[in-house]
Amino acid sequence: MTNIEICQQIETELLIVGAGIAGLSCCIEAKEKGLNPILISKSIVGGASFFPLKATLGIQITGNSDDKILFQQEIERVACGVNNPKIVKAYVEESPQAIELLGRIGFNPWLRQDNRPACFAHYSRPIYLINQWQQSAKRAKQILANHQTLIYDQAVLLHIVTEDNQVKGAIFAQQKGGQIRYIFCHTGNIILATGGIAGLYQDNLYPADIIGSTHYVAYQAGVKLINLEFIQFIPAFIKPKYKVLFGEHTLKYLVKVTDSKGRDLFAHLSPKQFQQMVLQRSSYAPFSIDFQSVEFDLVIMKHLVENPTEKGVYLHYSPELYQDQTEFYQVYLTWLKKEMDIHLLQDEVVIRPFAHSCNGGIEINEYAETAVQGLFAVGEISACIEGANRLGGNSVGGCLVFAKRAIQKIVESTPHLFTKSKTHYLLKGMQYLQHLANQEKKSDLSSSEILRQVKVLMNQFANVYRTEKNLQFLITKLQQLEKDCSIDLTKMHSIEIYHAIKTAQLIVHAMINRKQSLGSHQISLGE
């Protein structure tokens, strides 16, 4: 048995976990409001928003005063009634002002000049674009240095210490000089900004280090997790280059979809029916049951579930694709060739659904507060303005609006009283982690191998095409992998991977419990 040893104790009025756009926004806003936060993260300036092209669809904000009602109605329409109208109202009211926060964390946003509505939107409104990720990351690091922010990088949150439903501290691990250091932070306020849960899938559009473990850490602390079943999947390339964003608008010029042996997957449709389906499917990116073209995604995913050796489906285009001179096509096709060396007529094109964005997570109110006093969630880890689906371009904007609101609430709140000693809270946190470490070793599988198996299983059975039979099978497999997962305190990500397995189980239970197909969630109860 290995004992956990705390090598350092620190204290702060605010601990921020995660250094993507959400965490950076919280940190800079806190410093400028007179707080002195400590920032911990696996990488300083990272997160899902820094994945190539992930945020290039932009940040959608409210237009003129007449747009306030329209925008709120649009957000709630695609949410299908499973989100919080107060949170939506806060976003609609404050998103235009929150854009300035991007500049304060190192970005140079600019306003898109066309009037094309965002994905799932019926009306156009201002959309800001951001790019130049490496330069922005360098600027963000310099800004943090100028603010003299205390940073612990290569760090993972392991446990939140609470008592009487209030935050009292946290334990995190940091890898430094080849050694694992366990650190206790005494604090009354924590902001979680560690991203979503798509990294629990083998095929995802996330950086590799985001695996959803913090959801379970927060769950253990007493928060409520909602809408976990609403995960957005979009097609992405398997070949000719893996994990490259696919332009769904090109489907307008699709003539056939086949398996690896050349068999037509839509032979049951007439040519006219096929063209109607792909034309509609070319108008939106993430999977949604709200269109008849849902058949495109379901047929493809059912084929992949029933044929697990198939890596994806093969797309065959008409030459008319490259004859389309509209800017929307030319910009994408030129980028695809110059930057990715992909030509949709000359190369073998293979796609499959990739986990993209998460609409659910930690339940918050309009100030990003959770059910636990002093615990906040900002960004994709939270169930924010989204519900069953989300409008394109609302994700990054939510980071900005609710970073400002969370800091506002913390500044205005009465400081928490610590009724017991720091040692008491430290020992309480260590007790949980020591309990994990004391569990008997169940198998010879490494934690990384177990995580790999979790991702493969989630990819196959908790993707677009879901059946209750497959989900029940998946729960059984995940429970067995949990039993096989040994906690090795000398390994940086051992406890984190255990927490990720527990998060995966919560996701699948949410999918099973949602009996109705809605938005980005589809389940076939009879299969």
What can you see in these coordinates?
The protein is of the alpha/beta class and 527 residues long. The protein folds into two domains: 6-230 and 359-412, FAD/NAD(P)-binding domain (3-Layer(bba) Sandwich), CATH 3.50.50.60; 231-356, Alpha-Beta Complex (Flavocytochrome C3, Chain A, domain 1), CATH 3.90.700. The chain has 14 helices and 21 strands. It has a five-stranded parallel sheet with strand order 7-3-2-11-18, covered by helices on one side. Helix 3 crosses helix 10 (395-412) and helix 12 (447-461) packs antiparallel against helix 13. The mean pLDDT is 92.
CATH structural class of the largest domain: Alpha Beta
Sheet-strand content, in percent, reads 15-25%
Average pLDDT works out at 92
Taken from the alpha-carbon principal axes, the silhouette is: globular
**Low-confidence segments:** none
First and last CA, distance:
45 Å
Secondary structure tally: strands = 21
Main-sheet strand order equals: 7-3-2-11-18
Number of domains: 2
Under the CATH scheme, which architecture of the largest domain would be assigned? 3-Layer(bba) Sandwich
Give me the CATH fold name of the largest domain. Answer: FAD/NAD(P)-binding domain
What would a concise description of this structure say?
The chain is α/β, with parallel strands linked by helices and 527 residues long.
Quick tags:
oxidoreductase, 18% strand, Fum_R/Succ_DH_flav-like_C_sf, FAD-binding protein, five-stranded parallel β-sheet, 2 domains, FAD/NAD(P)-binding domain, SdhA/FrdA/AprA
